[in-house]
Amino acid sequence: MKEQQSHEYTVERYTPDRQPEWDSFVDSCRNSTFLHKRGYMDYHAHRFTDHSLMIYSNAALVAILPAHIKEETFCSHNGLTYGGLLLPNNTTADMTLEIFAATLDYLHSATTATKVIYKPTPHIYHSYPCEEDLYALFRNGATLAERKISSAIPLKKPLPISGRRKLTGKTKSRLSIIEDGNLADFWNILNERLQDKYDTAPVHNIDEITLLKSRFPENIKLFCVTDNNDGSTLGGVVLFITGNVVHMQYSATTPEGRRLSALDFLYEELINNRFADKDFFDFGISVENGGHYLNSGLIAYKERLGGRAVVYDTYIIDIKQAAND
Prior knowledge:
The chain has 2 domains: 3-147 and 313-324, Gcn5-related N-acetyltransferase (GNAT) (Aminopeptidase, 3-Layer(aba) Sandwich); 156-278, 3-Layer(aba) Sandwich (Aminopeptidase). The protein contains 11 helices and 16 strands. The longest helix is centred in the N-terminal third of the chain and has 18 residues, at 93-110. The protein has 325 residues and is an alpha+beta fold. The two termini are 27 Å apart.
């Protein structure tokens, strides 16, 4: 296993025998979520050449970086929505600069990578402020490559839902909300909706999401709206639940569910009641082509529900240039 010494830090490549150490450290970080646990990262290990890094100081683990290498690019992991350096509470700005320097020295000396693609964890997912890596990116000449816009609701003081058709008592009496309903039924609805509207498919297939849900039952939940008349599923949402954020990973309805505004009925319950103790409800991005195209209709729906902008950024670092600075 290659490793590179820089300053007082040692950078080492993750190996599967270190999973307990990795997962335990994830729990101690202020900008990590369950997506950074190996049980989530490794479900699609066959798609990526993992090259996650573990950074030590005096034999103590001080930072980790979920990542993989594709050709000559070191990516902070393309299988994850966000990542970057994961840092515990005691990591200072000076320490982060040193950790960044050590990491870039390692990549320059011990790999064939020529550039870094870096995706920091958006601030709403921090359990405590953790933007030292953004400063380190600036100091190392990083350039902004993508800016994707998401929509989030502060759940302690949400804006009122606007512009929706008011559900009558008769309609409401017809609808029920079921937690962790039939995942296969919902996936059929989701596949059909994504195919018809966007000519695409979910990132996860039914086997993958079933596996992940079994590994993280408290973090991945399905809420369905059913029709009391016949028990059919009208639609639903799959939520990824972290320490302080509820993220809408997937949503879909049947034509009848759209006619009855089943998702409005569901979101009102989730936002105002089920997850009122959380900090944010994140609807996810509404852009394509790295942020250069805004899906105005999609974001307008999220904004009508009270969502406002949170950005998901991606940066590029030229390793050789940074190593020489």
